[in-house]
Amino acid sequence: MTEYSDGQALPTSGVFKGMVGGNAIVRAGSDLEVKGIVKGDLFIEAGARVLVSGIVKGKVVHDGAAVVMTGIIGGE
Q1: Does 57 fall in a domain?
Q2: 3 state DSSP class of 71
Q3: What are 14-71's pLDDT values in tens digits?
Q4: Nearest-CA neighbor of 74 among 64, 63, 61, 60?
Q5: Containing structural domain, residue 68
Q6: How many alpha carbons fall within 13 Å on the CB side of residue 66?
Q7: How many distinct structural domains can be found in the chain?
Q8: Whole-prediction pTM value?
């Protein structure tokens, strides 16, 4: 998996509605809806369940996680 140690860790459950100025990480075991804005890449660890309904300006990188994307991805 791509190196993502510089990313901001998102909450492990519920809905994230905020904004991240760079990269973001969803940790394994999380069950999260991302409705906010991630200005960098979104890294999702294996074992997480994520619905991306917001905006990710970079790419969504996942390692076998359960991911559904209905938002805007890679707008640049």
Answers
A1: yes
A2: coil
A3: 999 999 999 999 999 999 999 999 999 999 999 999 999 999 999 999 988 999 999 9
A4: 60
A5: 8-73
A6: 8
A7: 1
A8: 0.91
